[in-house]
Amino acid sequence: MRLHVRQTCVWHEMQRPPWQNFDPILLAVSILLVGYGLLVIASATRVVDVSTNPALIRQAVIGVIGVIVMIALSFIDYRAVGQIAPILYIVMIVTLVFVLVLGTFVAGAQRWLDVAGIRIQPSELAKLIIVICLARFFAGRTKEPTANEIRATPTTGMFAEHVRTSLVALAIVAPAVVLVYLQPDLGTTLVLIAIYFSIAYFAGAPYAVLGGLASVPLLGFPVVWQVMKPYMRRRITSFLSPDRDPLGEGYNLIQARISVGSGGWWGRGLGNGTQTQLNFLRVQHTDFIFAVMGEELGFMGGCGLLVLYGVLLWRCLRAVHVSRDAFGRYLAGGVTGMVLFQAFVNIGMNIGLLPVTGIPLPFISFGGSSLLTLFASLGILQSVLVHSQSRRYDARPSVEVPARSRLRAGRFALPFVPDTDIAFPSVTRYDRMADPIVGRDETVRARPPVGSRRLPDPVGRGGTIGRA
Amino acid sequence: MTTAPPAFPPRRSLPIDRTFLFVTLMVALGLVLIAQLWYLQVATGAQYLQRADTNRLRVETEKPLRGVIYDRNGVVVARNISSFTASIRPTDLPRDRTARNDVFARLGSIIEMSPDEIGKFVEPGRVDPFLLTRIKSPITREMALILEEQHTRLPGVVVQFTPVREYPVGLLLGQLLGYTGPIPPSQVDARVASGYGPDEFIGLSGVESSFEDELRGTAGRQQVEVDAMGRVTNVIETLAPTIPGANVVLSIDGSLQELAAAVLARGMNRAKSQQGSLVAMDPSTGEILAMVSLPGYDNNLFATGISQAEYSRLANDVWRPLFSHAVGGQVPPGSTFKMVTAAAALQERIVTPTTNVSCTGSITRNGLQFRDWTLQGHGPVNARQALGVSCDIYFYSVAGGNPYSGLQGLGIVRLATYARAFGLGEKTGVRLPGESPGLVPSPEWKRQAKGEPWYVGDEYNIGIGQGYLLATPLQLASMTATLANGGTVYRPRIVRELRETGGATRTTYRPEAVRTLPVNAEYVAAIRAGMRDVTNSPLIVPGFAGTAFAPLRTFGLDMAGKTGTAEFEGPRDSKGRLPTHALFVGYAPASDPKIAVAVFVYGGGEGSEIAAPIAGEVIRTYLYGVPLATSLDR
């Protein structure tokens, strides 16, 4: 018996089956977030009896489906998903055009498609597809240098290459951005741009390029202002001075602020917030759900949510860190950036720090498309964790292949560079199993040889993008 | 590929780890959020809590139901019926323009108005967005029900239940009861300061106006919780209870009023008169039993909102139907004033009850001839006889002196004192709006008003109730009641008591004696005897019966009275005589009076012929309930 136990342990150490890399904390925290959201949605939709609240049931059912999707996706190798990225991209563009032509109008915006009685919001799914496409593009342009190369290769002289790569990536996002903007959906447009910046950041785009791109809308503000739709301009002016039209544009900003402020330390109790329960606060179970939380659960409730997001983002970043190839890193980075941006902008708008943009609060706001997309994103993140150690896609040492031809090449031409070859040039199957990088616990990570200590930098520190 | 040998040493300053930078950014953003949360919820939370309360708490005033008005027999003469008003509270309308127009269109289709019309009512800047703006009133009950049913699709639309007045007897008590309506612009500020809502209705005329405070009741105030649509979700605290207005019981006897109106109308018709009034009082209490002023108006017209055309028709009518001539009309009392002259002369010892004054048909004074109504003269008459035959010469003499017998007259000062003692020349203090004081002239008044000195002729005229002397029919009724009860002047009262909603008595108005006549009982008795002769004596002096004997003979009443035929400036008739108003005052039964009546018929001719039968019929019906087939055409 004893022996058996011991043997089991040994087997465990030795085998490290891939599913052990599945991150249960990520799963747990996302379920906690959805549960927290359900609680607040229940209050915002005046639930008396759970079984008769359609919004609550819908959200809960989609939450369950989401968890299933997440687990299912974690079984699929993310690189397989990467392979169908062009198809996904085309489907996305076609769907977004479809929305503009045939979409359902709700409150003046054409953002929804009614498919077989289910109303879906394709722009939500577009976020994930953009993450996949951009991650694949940047990964295709990434050459993971060997230990010698990083010592040898000067990073100078590559700037033009970096700019070109960043702009091409921008061209990939641009059609989606324009289509979503035309719906009009300012919130999702901004999220798409945030995803772009986030992946470019993790892919090692120079700060000058990132800063330069970010400053374009600031410097060109007069032009942007002209391009903006009237409702967007009103949102900005009302954000700057909500009291100028307290019953019109400024109304919800003021009411959200009152709702949050009246919560105090511990809130007024679930179901007891007068702002929420008496409808002074509008769109309370979607965009302004954080205000409900602030009113009814107070400062502590709000901080609790921030802690949950903190844990979620920590686990996402860990995935970025642990991923053993560029594609995985960029996927995880994109998802992390998306969640961070959405959470910050939504909460910021609820508490009067940012103008009103229709960005849902991740995992909390009522809305099936958003919730499913988030769970699918986490599923892909899990897939990165589970599968990045797999050598299935390592067959082609594609570093040598020029990027452009690689993009056009077939199934196995994807440029996934085996990091392991850089860090541990002579890796056996046994070694790889023991490789702490893909292990579950980084604290026992074996130190690589002193000279190559920083080499397997997964975050693109030493990597270059562009054609090597 | 670039696998050149190390040309450079490894970089010393590596770029900051991007993950680390990302974490820093994350923490920084988190801290920003926490700082703002802390600022909103902890640092300034109390302020926002207060603002949240301001959002949801409102003090609502609950308007009390206006009191019902009954006649003395408990018949409802003014009551509340329900009327529905469609209103909009602009703050609760949708912000979005198209959604707002949707609401207007939907509302318009229900209450049959065009959406543009509705939109104009609530244009921003035109009305206080927090107050209800009346869109259409009244709407039918069906419209109100549909609006209530669809209230979720009509944000901002409120159906108000507004009680409006209904006057079941309309025309009959129109002037007396008056009507309610929106506060006139000139009064709005004062009324709002004393607790009225700017859109509230107040009594504007008649009893509705003079008993406004009693009828209105006390508005209750409640602190309520409202939702964003402005609907009350919860009553938190009652700050002041709603006390419904008191029910008012009039002293008016509805059936007597109806009869009086009919009889007066018939009498006026006979005399081809367009205006007349009648006041009946209970002499022992001062309660007004009937008060008619013709022409009148139907106050129901005002209760439901009168049309402009209808209003100007009423307001421009020369006979002034909106004005109650019974309390506000100032008329020369004519011979009905002679009791006052007699009382003054007797009390001032100008004459004794047995002193005879010789009536030769006229007195010439300072070259002016003052005639009796009959040129043949009555011969020697004492006070009682003089009243019975209405001898002008007698009253000229006691008022202004008689040059033939050397009788010293009372003079205007003493005469005026007694006139005032009877309540003439000043408002009686009845609680009705629009009362006139009448006029008891004095030399000073004449100097100021006419710029002329006082002549003896003026005294002669006053002595027989002509000249500048003016009195209201109500004052004449009060004067008659004073004589009827033996000398107590009661303040005329229109309301007997106030009752609670349940029927319990809140206030009973006791008879209020203003003063007692400064006239000895024996003199009053002599005057009363003279008044009794007027209606009952077939022969007072040779050739003369009581002035109202002939017309009242058939009534078989034990009543006392005095006729009056007062000249007024108007087109003279073919014989060059001035036109006359017909007056009659009287009471019955003569020994124990139960009712005192004053009748005035504008331009009615002879008081005995026109006014006396009217009074007789009213009194007979009141005392013996003899039914009449006449009724006022309403």
Structure characteristics:
heterodimer; A: 468 residues; 3-stranded antiparallel sheet; two-stranded antiparallel sheet; 20 helices; 5 strands; 62% helix; disordered C terminus; B: alpha+beta; Beta-lactamase; 7-stranded mixed sheet; 5-stranded antiparallel sheet; 23 strands
Whole-number mean pLDDT of chain B:
86
Content of β-strand of chain B = 15-25%
Strand content of chain A: under 5%
Looking at the overall shape, the CATH architecture of the largest domain in chain B is 3-Layer(aba) Sandwich
Uncertain stretches of chain A: 1-15, 146-154, 394-468
Helix proportion of residues of chain B, in percent? 25-40%
Tell me the overall shape of chain A: globular
Number of strands of chain B: 23
Shape of chain B: elongated
* DSSP summary: helix tally of chain A: 20
CATH class placement of the largest domain in chain B: Alpha Beta
Instruction: Provide mean pLDDT of chain A, rounded.
Output: 76
Stretches with pLDDT under 50, minimum 5 residues of chain B: 1-15, 628-634
The end-to-end span of chain A amounts to 56 Å
**Integer-rounded radius of gyration of chain A:** 24 Å
Q: Could you provide a short overview of the structure?
A:
Chain A contains 20 helices and 5 strands. Chain A has 468 residues and is mostly helical. Chain A has one domain.
How would you characterize this protein structure?
The complex is a heterodimer of chains A (468) and B (634). Chain A is mainly alpha-helical. Chain A has one domain (20-226, 322-337, 361-465). Helices cover 62% and strands 4% of the residues of chain A. Chain A has 20 helices and 5 strands. Chain A has helices spanning 2-15, 24-44, 54-75, 78-83, 85-102, 122-140, 147-152, 159-181, 186-202, 207-219, 221-227, 230-240, 251-263, 274-277, 289-322, 326-350, 368-387, 403-408, 419-423, 429-434, and strands at 104-106, 109-115, 118-120, 142-143, 464-465. The longest helix of chain A has 34 residues, at 289-322. Chain A is globular. The N and C termini of chain A lie far apart (56 Å). Chain B is an alpha+beta fold. Chain B folds into 2 domains: 59-92 and 102-123 and 137-250, Penicillin-binding protein 2a (Domain 2), CATH 3.90.1310; 254-624, DD-peptidase/beta-lactamase superfamily (Beta-lactamase). In chain B, 36% of the residues lie in helices and 21% in strands. In chain B, the strands form 7 sheets. In chain B, strands 2, 3, 4, 5, 10, 18 and 19 form a 7-stranded mixed β-sheet that branches. In chain B, helix 10 runs antiparallel to helix 23 (607-624), helix 14 (338-347) packs across helix 17 and helix 16 packs across helix 19 (456-463). The radius of gyration of chain B is 37 Å and the shape is elongated. The N and C termini of chain B lie far apart (116 Å). In chain B, 45% of the residues are buried. The chains are: A mainly alpha (468), B alpha+beta (634). Chains A and B meet through helix 7, helix 13, helix 15 and helix 16 of A and helix 1 and helix 2 of B.
